Amino acid sequence: MRLAGLDVIVVGNPPPGFGGRYFIFVKVTTVCGIAGWGEVYAATVGPAAMQAVIADVFARHMEGENPENIELMFRRVYSAGFSQRPDPTVMGAFSGLEIACWDLLGKARERPVHALWGGRLRDRLRAYTYLYPRDDQDPASFYNDPDASAEAAAALVERHGFTAVKFDPAGPYTIHGGRQPAMAELDRAEAFCRAVRAAVGDRADLLFGTHGQFTTSGAIRLARRIEPYDPLWFEEPVPPDNPLEMGRVAAAVRVPVAAGERLTTKQEFAALLRAGGAGVVQPSLGRVGGLLEARKIAAMAEGFNAQVAPHLYAGPVAWAAAAQLAASLPNFLLLETILTGGGFHGALIGGAWDWDDGHVRLPDRPGLGVELDEALARAHPWRGERLHLEMQAEEADPRGARFGGG
Length: 406
Hints:
Layout lengths: L2 E10 L9 E9 L4 E6 L6 H15 L8 H9 L9 H22 L14 E7 L8 H4 L3 H15 L3 E4 L15 H18 L4 E5 L6 H11 L6 E3 L7 H10 L4 E3 L5 H10 L5 E2 L9 H13 L3 E2 L7 H12 L7 E3 L5 H6 L10 E3 L12 H5 L28
Parallel strand pairs: 4-5, 4-11, 5-6, 6-7, 7-8, 8-9, 9-10
Antiparallel strand pairs: 1-2, 2-3, 4-12
Helix pairs in contact: 1-3, 2-3, 5-6, 6-7, 7-8, 9-10
């Protein structure tokens, strides 16, 4: 087998847009006609530029290669331009292409991807989702209303069996780095935890999300406000490029710290784990370097007695890859989903996966277990100018500005 063809599809995610403004799917094909699908999550440049990066990585380091030689292709990309250091854009491009290689290898052997590297440890994967507004709710109001989130959490637990839900009410994400939370933000964070805990009782874990908003001391102040409600984790409390300070937060609070969605390659995760910065690591499959690199990160985390909860704010191909990874890990904790994987996400892969009382039931189909509906994907091209996700340019209001939602 030799890699011969590449196609990149940038798909606009229609309203309500949960999972990001667009998805970047890649399709790689061998000389003999076997095709595999992957998904790129990293989007630090616009879609047109990202497509050019993906095409360059494929042509320069992968085209003509045997798709089995994933380690060799990774080393080529990681070392490109005399770099040999993590690069989120280039490694993001490779991540999607690498996932596609595993998909086509599984199809060529008529086996699921997890069967190619040791098999599965579990058939059902415990899942969690963010709390999202209903179609009839105003998002701006929802994301600032503890009672609305509590109602949403109770519905997810009662109707779908979720045993964990995530919310992030602590304030806006800005380009200005770590800051001290305003008193209003501390009050709001505590109010959300109080309301959601009252709504779900001991039926579900609370996952408290932040996205690197705070200084070390600010994160510790916030954590101490939410500790009485016993969250399962306190997510990325300080900027992701400072693992030593993440470790200082983790040592000072009684809530486990989770981190890693914005990191790439084992090198950045090694620094985080050595610093004691995370009891839960959250590799994002479309950014971290691909499935093989994520397995290395998971094995490294196991040595630090840390668990793995693959991050997902992307489309259903990245979700499928995360499920294949999770099924094979002894230190797997939770799989992030977009609600129960229905809507546009499910339509793109011909229907949502089997849902089983708060768990995803892993399919036994070859490759990633899904096949992208190419016609549907092409029928929804992205025509906007904005990035998949963006941070606020203005500094946060020290009086505690309203939050626009994750």
